[in-house]
Amino acid sequence: MDPDRIRESFPASSFRGMQAEAISDIRDAFAAGNSVVLVRAPTGSGKSLLARAIAGGARTVTDAKPSDAINSYYTTPQVSQLDDVAADPLLDDLNIIRGKSNYTCILNGETETPVDRAPCAREKGYDCSVRHRCPYFSDRAIASNRRIAAMTLAYFMQTAGSDVFRRRDVVVIDEAHGLPEWAEMYATVNLQSNTIPIWDEITVPDLTAESDPLDRTIRFAETVIEACKRAIDPLINRDELTPTEAAHRDRLQEIRSELQWFISDARDPQSPTTWVIDQDDTNNDVAIKPLDPARYLSHTVWNRGNKFALLSATILNKNAFCRGVGLDPAEVALVDVDHTFPVANRPLYDVTCGKMTYNERDETLPAVTRMLIRLMAAHPDEKGLIHCHSYAIQSSLRRRLAELGVESRIQTHDTTDRDESLQAWLSTDSPDIFLSVTMEEALDLQGDLCRWQVICKAPYLNTTDSRVSRRLSDGKWSWYRRVALQTVIQACGRIVRSPDDYGSTYLADSSLLNLFNNARNEMPAWFREQVDRISTPTLPTFEEAINTVGRASTAGVRSPSTSTAQSDDHSKHANSNNKTNSEDRRSTHPLSDVWGEN
User: Fold this and answer.
1) Which domain holds residue 274?
2) Are residues 438 and 517 in the same domain?
3) 267 with 368, same domain?
4) What is the spatial distance between Cα 496 and Cα 473, in angstroms, rounded to a whole number?
5) What is the three-class DSSP state of 377?
């Protein structure tokens, strides 16, 4: 890598905000000999342009020996982030490659067939006459031979060991704060009745009742591997397969590979990975989950390049992040980029209505619903995004809002139509609110696309998840709060995208205030400034708001006295919780705000 090339590789004609200073600091960090540089840059600071500049510093074929790694990778966990890169004319030399299932075959009669189920994947020795024009293999050939290959983190990890995508000089990972969690997800082995074709042929023992569930799971994994091999052999020997048979073959090979990796890691006394075993009591589905899979990341990420740049707005704790991904903090440099958006343009407002933990949300949701009505009235001509956290909360809010007669201003989505529903909301000129689930990241709502948003619930991880409960039993409460804070900061960045943009974020769950108090030392200075300015807004009363937004139907509406009490009691509640250091908001137990999260 030549750090001096980073500045000249910046793709825009001029710098904005703190980009020039960031480029200089990144250059200096690599020039000092660091192999890994963390770039902590706020949302909207132009991280993709910084990423392109860093990638441009990679060694080229003209100044390399035949054995040297050259060129660079750009990767991100978010598919939408890759889509944004593809649409940005300043990044048109990032050559994008996606997984086979994203491309369709171009052969006659196969134009609706994904490439991973095309004749070349189904027939032994198939000689495709149009392979040179195949959209997948064409994109792969271009990306593998150009200076910057861009792909999702999933594809990047899956191609570890590939002869096509070999080690490169520089690897840039955007939105890198989630790298530990994404690695754990990718390294998890799910053995389920609906995803393994031979499941009915396997006897599943009770894996969790034994004193040593890991050893029992290893032996079970060996049994599954043998069963997969027996099922794969006749498929491999067939000259032609149906698309379903090809899918079965690929799934069996995938499971066998995943289980072989698990066994190898679990039996390695030097591996830092802790394996947690889950088993469903109803259908015997098994999930083999890793904690801190540093060895997995070593193979899939760290062995793929010479130099690494990891970019994010929310790598909150350098040392903790490095430990979670298997890096030595002493060998990693941190570059902090200041926020240049005026804090007055990105206010946080306390509209807390109570706690939204699993056991308390039924009491809180009516007040949250009324608060949404008041916010809609306060923003009569502006779109709003509601971060619901879960589909259960989304469904309840949708039903309650419909009962209050405002369904005409409500848009929502489910697991099957997320992108289509989001685009429909973005395209409308009406001041609708969008009830979203897990849209806290990689969403660019600049300008009038959205002017206000509500965080309905402190986004703590589910304490019933075995990995979460295992970490909490080990006392890792700082990690638990840090992950939630990351999500909140990411959510706050969705609606203010430039120095002259503006948008309001409303906090509906009182546990968010406790999170800010307990995780204050983890906050970037620019976000701490936002938190210190939290105020309680002046809003219409519920009665005024419902007359403005739309008259409620009689069904499901509580009496006016109840509505008034619940809505107006908010002011008293908010004022008692407004100061960040209030003694009343200190948790007496780490789980006091999150017990029974779901």
Assistant:
1) 193-284
2) yes
3) no
4) 38
5) helix
Tell me the two tokens of residue 494.
Answer: 């969705």
The per-residue pLDDT for range 412-443, each reduced to its tens digit, is: 999 899 989 999 999 999 999 999 999 998 88
Residues 433 and 474 in one domain: yes
Residue that has been written with the tokens 């938190």 in this structure: 531
Q: Give percent above pLDDT 90 in the chain.
A: 68
Q: Does residue 165 sit in the same domain as residue 201?
A: no
Residue 52 counted as domain residue = yes
pTM of the complete model: 0.85
In a domain? residue 473 = yes
In a domain, 15, yes or no: yes
Residue 259 — left, alpha, or beta (φ > 0 → left; ψ -120 to 50 → alpha)? alpha
Residues making up the chain, counted from first to last:
598
CATH code of 74's domain: 3.40.50.300
Share of the chain above pLDDT 70, in %: 92
CA–CA separation, 62 and 70 (whole Å): 10
Q: Is residue 61 part of a domain?
A: yes
Asked whether residue 151 falls in the same domain as residue 229, the answer is no
Q: What H or E segment, with its residue span, contains residue 311?
A: strand 305-312
Q: Output the CA–CA distances (angstroms, integers) from residue 53 to 43, 146, 167, 317, in the order listed.
A: 18, 16, 19, 25
Q: Are residues 168 and 202 in the same domain?
A: no
Gap between the Cα atoms of 463 and 467, Å rounded = 9
The count of structural domains within the chain is: 3
Q: Please check whether residues 278 and 154 belong to one and the same domain.
A: no
Q: How many CB atoms lie within 10 A of CB 109?
A: 8
| Ramachandran region, residue 369 (left: φ > 0; alpha: ψ -120 to 50; beta: rest) | alpha
CA distance 446 to 491: 13
More confident residue, 145 or 591: 145
For residue 280, give the nearest of 268, 272, 288 by alpha carbon. 288
Q: Residue type at 576?
A: S
Cβ partners under 8 Å of residue 91, min gap 6: 11, 48, 49, 52, 85
> Collapsing DSSP states into helix, strand and coil, what is residue 519?
coil
Tell me if residue 424 falls in helix, strand or coil. helix
pLDDT at 442: 80
Q: What is the Cα gyration radius of the chain? A: 26
Q: Are the CB atoms for 298 and 309 separated by under 8 Å?
A: no
Helix axes 510-518, 477-492, angle to 10 degrees: 120
Residue 548, pLDDT score: 85
Do 279 and 300 fall into the same domain?
no
pLDDT of 219-271, one tens digit each?
999 999 999 999 999 988 888 888 888 989 999 999 999 999 999 999 998 88
| Farthest CA pair distance, the chain | 80
DSSP 522: G
Three-state SS letters, 141-187: HHHHHCCEEEEEHHHHHHCCCCCCCCCEEEEEECCHHHHHHHHHHHH
Strands 168-173 and 305-312: parallel
541-550 exposure pattern, b = at least 16 Cβ within 10 A, e = fewer:
ebeebbeebb
95-113 pLDDT, tens per residue?
999 999 999 999 999 999 9
